[in-house]
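User: For my dataset I need records formatted as: sequence, then structure tokens, nothing else. Please produce one.
Assistant:
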Amino acid sequence: MKSNYFLIMIALLLTTSFLGCNMLRGAGEDIENAGGSIQKTVDHND
């Protein structure tokens, strides 16, 4: 019984860490795209 609980906890931790990494990577890409859009607007108005 304890080993099943331990395996479930490890699986949850691995899943959470994987999802966290994907979320941060997605946020980084969104920020990069926003920066590119701002740069295009500034270049267009110069």
